[in-house]
Write a structure and sequence with these properties.
Layout (H helix, E strand, L loop, with lengths): L13 H27 L5 H39 L2 H5 L9 H37 L3 H29 L3 H20 L11 H9 L12 E4 L2 E4 L1 H27 L3 H13 L1 H8 L9 H16 L12 H21 L10
Antiparallel strand pairs: 1-2
Helix pairs in contact: 1-2, 1-5, 1-9, 2-4, 2-9, 2-10, 4-8, 4-9, 4-10, 4-11, 4-12, 5-8, 5-9, 6-8, 6-11, 8-11, 11-12
Length: 355
């Protein structure tokens, strides 16, 4: 049966999904029409930069509080529904079938938090890549805001598709092993492989775009399209957006299996993932520059991917069928927090300048 692992199928509880998507849409609209105008109106003076930072920091805090509220709301919703209809647990082909409504709702809450922490950790790594992309294309603050907004909107759509497909497939044991093995290999690669240089000219989507539209040599404010010799043309800002979107799709290939390793419950996987993405734009302007100080973070992220990959495959056999969520959350927080702390204690040596 499709989504056999799900206690709450999105097909049956579509009003809940619709309500969550409506709330996400309102937050995105507020970000675009209120936050962006406020930051754009701050100007480029030192005082304006401080105002912009305070706005981004406040919006980041609100997004985090919103994620905690979403996790709590789903816990309370689950407790109410499962108490009223205990057959939902019995009908599920997952570990929840042996739980009481109270135990299941608390497990949902912890899984949401764990998934959120994993996605936020991976998002932090994404921020540094986005910073490199923006520097490569020479984007100022206003252009960065615009690209990040539309990039996040696209990310929400792609994550919804990927999680929907993944949640339907995880009922098959071999899919769990494939996803888990992929995460382990990706984590090892992240730890041992050198970082690749940014080469947008090799991006196949950029080649496709340049084949469909001429690319203007200069920006036209924050517009994605302009006129070049009377013809419709793409601006460098649109090229940047394509690079950001395709980069995020590559990130989703890691993050979606990672969150499904935490929970196969579609509402939890989708909700925690989207809550982390919503925080991405504001968080970029708060921590992007500081992220360069956490040079050891990639090792922590790599080990997190290895951990969740093993949690999806071999570790359940060692814990009677399921790795305890508090243990999993503790390991993830320890790995991320530990490597960030070590980065500050052991700062990266600057390469000598040759001149």
């Amino acid at each position: 049966m499709l989504l056999a692992y799900a206690v709450f199928s999105p097909l049956e509880y579509w009003p809940v999904l619709a309500g969550f998507i409506a709330a996400v849409s309102l937050l995105l609209a507020f970000d675009l029409f209120v936050i962006e105008r406020l930051t754009r109106g701050a100007g480029h003076t030192p005082e304006g930069e401080r105002k912009r930072f305070r706005l981004s920091a406040a919006w980041t805090v609100l997004c985090v509080l919103g994620a905690l509220a979403a996790a709590w709301a789903f816990k309370e919703f689950a407790l109410h529904e499962l108490t009223a209809n205990p057959a939902l647990l019995a009908a599920s082909e997952s570990r929840y079938s042996s739980m009481t409504p109270d135990e299941a709702s608390r497990a949902f809450f912890l899984e949401f938090l764990t998934g959120y922490v994993v996605e936020m950790s991976l998002s932090v790594d994404n921020l540094f890549v986005f910073l490199v992309i923006f520097r490569y294309f020479g984007l100022d603050h206003d252009k960065q805001h615009r690209v990040l907004f539309w990039g996040i909107l696209g990310a929400v759509v792609f994550r919804a598709i990927f999680i929907g497909v993944g949640a339907a497939l995880v009922q098959y044991q071999w899919v769990l092993w494939v996803m888990g093995g992929f995460l382990v290999l990706t984590g090892i690669k992240l730890v041992v492989a050198e970082e690749k240089k940014l080469e947008p000219e090799k991006n196949p989507f950029i080649r496709l775009l340049s084949g469909l539209l001429p690319v203007a040599p200069r920006f036209d404010g924050t517009r994605f399209l302009t006129r070049l010799d009377g013809r419709l043309a793409a601006t460098p800002l649109l090229v940047t957006l394509v690079v950001v979107e395709t980069t995020d799709v590559a990130f989703a290939v890691d993050s979606v299996p990672a969150v499904l390793a935490i929970s196969q419950e579609p509402f939890i996987a989708f909700g925690s993932n989207i809550c982390a993405i919503l925080c991405l734009r504001a968080m970029f302007f708060v921590v992007a520059e500081a992220m360069q100080k956490f040079h050891l973070l990639k090792y922590g992220l790599g080990l997190v991917l290895v951990w969740v990959g093993l949690k999806m495959t071999v570790l359940p056999a060692l814990f009677g069928g399921h790795v305890p969520i508090p243990l999993s959350l503790g390991v993830i927080v320890a790995l991320i927090g530990g490597t960030m702390l070590l980065s500050l204690m052991l700062p990266q040596k600057e390469e000598p300048q040759h001149g």
